[in-house]
Amino acid sequence: MLRGHPLAKMLKGNGVDIGAIRLFAWMRDKGYLMKTGGARNMPTQKAMNLGLFTVKETTVVHSDGRITVKKTPKVTGRGQEYFVSCFLKDSKQSLAVGVIAVSRY
Predict the structure, then answer these.
(1) DSSP per position, 58-82
(2) How far apart are CA 11 and CA 15, in angstroms?
(3) 32 near 40, Cβ under 8 Å?
(4) By the 8 A CB rule, do 41 and 72 touch?
(5) How far is CA 97 from CA 83, 88, 90, 92, 100, in A?
(6) At 40, phi and psi to the nearest 5?
(7) 101: pLDDT strictly greater than 50
(8) CA 25/CA 28 separation, integer angstroms
(9) Do residues 68 and 60 touch, judged by C-beta distance below 8 A?
C-alpha cells in the first residue's frame, strides 16, 4: 500500500506530469477523497467500496498526556492499478499519443 506521494512518483514514471499536490486535488475533484472539514483527504465511501484505499490509524501520545489517533489514507494495490489506468486513459484521449507502458511493482 502506498501513500499519495509514491503514487504520484509512479504516475510520473509512466509519463503522467503530476505531483502529489495536484494528484490529491484531482482525487478530491473526482470524488475519491473528501474535500472539506476534519476528514479532508480521507477516502470517500465510494473509494472505500471500490477497494482503492485503506486507512491506517496510529495512536499518538503527546507530551501533555493526551492521546490522539492519526489517520493516514493508503492506496491499495488495486487502487494503484485503477489510478494509473485512469491517468493513462486520460492522457491517451487528451494527447492522442500511443500506448505508455505501465511498470508493475
Answers:
(1) EEEE-TTS-EEEEEEEEE-HHHHHH
(2) 7
(3) no
(4) no
(5) 19, 10, 11, 5, 8
(6) -55, 135
(7) no
(8) 5
(9) yes
Model confidence band, residue 94 (pLDDT cutoffs 50, 70, 90): very low
Say whether pTM exceeds 0.70.
yes
Pairs from 97-103 (Cβ < 8 Å, separation ≥ 24)? 100/14, 100/15, 101/14, 102/14, 103/10, 103/13, 103/14
Element (H, E) at 53: strand 53-61
- CA dihedral angle for residue 18, residue 83, residue 14, residue 7, rounded to 10 degrees: 60
Q: Which residues have C-beta within 8 Å of that of residue 27, sequence separation ≥ 6?
A: 4, 33
pLDDT-derived band at 66 (thresholds 50, 70, 90) equals very high
Distances (CA, A) of 61 to 65, 69, 73: 6, 9, 20
